[in-house]
């Protein structure tokens, strides 16, 4: 599959809007302000197999390093901790830094996340760019040591208390299995491997990119995704002109369904990509209260 080129397309769309005089609400201070104001979105859902209620905080698309710095991450971490979740899940695109960049300020803040069942995450496409692979537009050459960089960062995240799941899973409670797949664009995501061992437990599956949803090899209890930013720039009546998905608006945001009728939630995420602006698409920390 040839990945979409969301960042470049967003820039072209914004230039077109500016030329037509329609970008007053998205450009400049208004768009910057909307990108800085996040919401705590609270949702309830059923998760078959749970024997006790579960509270999950889901944060995704932090994009630390380009437009996002430690202060923003600190506020998101504080908001997640204030919800007193049982479990914290992170949906990838943690990083927007050069391969030799320093993730320490991000990891310092993530180390403050607290949940009795742990903190788990998956890689996203921008993380792979930060490992040293070319970006989604094919720009740049792959660093020969990018796999080593990925391994080093996984270890650094683990020291900060974040377990990265790459086509793997964990039993975090007697009645709950959490699985995570590799990035859809740059990895080889294997949902079957991520859910292997779940048995009769309820299942939560993390996939950075919702384009995995139609390709699920079997049902999962609930899939949590990010990547789209909800389109990031949304306009009245028409919604998001650009969604970085081969399925367009289908998996842009909110509650959707994948193969086998599997329910999924696509978060609008927290950071920005391409341009440091949002419009009618506030960043979100998602809190899910789940019951069997």
UniProtKB/TrEMBL annotation:
Signal peptide: none
Listed InterPro entries: Calcineurin-like_PHP (IPR004843), Metallo-depent_PP-like (IPR029052), Metallophosphoesterase_sf (IPR051158), TAT_signal (IPR006311)
Pfam (any one): Metallophos
PROSITE patterns: TAT (PS51318)
Domain named Calcineurin-like phosphoesterase: residues: 54-230
The entry's keywords: Hydrolase, Metal-binding
GO cellular component: membrane
Stated name of the protein: Metallophosphoesterase
Organism the protein comes from: Deinococcus metallilatus
Lineage: Bacteria, Thermotogati, Deinococcota, Deinococci, Deinococcales
């Amino acid at each position: 599959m040839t990945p979409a080129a969301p960042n470049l397309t967003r820039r072209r769309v914004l230039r077109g809007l500016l030329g037509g005089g329609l970008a007053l609400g998205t450009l400049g201070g208004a768009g910057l302000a909307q990108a800085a104001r996040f919401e705590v979105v609270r949702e309830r859902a059923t998760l078959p197999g749970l024997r006790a209620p579960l509270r999950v905080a889901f944060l995704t698309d932090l994009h630390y390093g380009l437009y996002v710095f430690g202060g923003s991450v600190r506020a998101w971490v504080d908001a997640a901790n204030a919800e007193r979740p049982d479990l914290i899940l992170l949906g990838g695109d943690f990083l927007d830094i050069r391969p030799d960049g320093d993730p320490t300020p991000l990891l310092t803040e993530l180390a403050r996340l607290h949940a009795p069942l742990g903190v788990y995450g998956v890689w996203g496409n921008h993380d792979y760019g930060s490992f040293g692979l070319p970006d989604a537009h094919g720009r740049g050459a792959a660093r020969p040591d990018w796999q080593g960089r990925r391994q080093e960062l996984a270890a650094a995240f683990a020291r900060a208390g974040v377990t990265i799941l790459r086509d793997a899973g964990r039993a975090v409670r007697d009645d709950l299995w959490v699985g995570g797949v590799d990035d859809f664009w740059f990895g080889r995501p294997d949902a079957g491997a991520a859910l292997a061992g779940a048995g009769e437990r309820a299942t939560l599956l993390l996939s950075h990119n919702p384009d995995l949803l139609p390709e699920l090899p079997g049902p999962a209890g609930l899939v949590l995704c990010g990547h789209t930013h909800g389109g990031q720039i949304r306009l009245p009546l028409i919604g998001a002109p650009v969604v970085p998905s081969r399925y367009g608006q289908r998996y842009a945001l909110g509650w959707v369904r994948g193969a086998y009728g599997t329910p999924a939630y696509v978060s609008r995420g927290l950071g920005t990509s391409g341009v440091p602006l949002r419009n009618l698409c506030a960043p979100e920390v998602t809190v899910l209260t789940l019951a069997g």
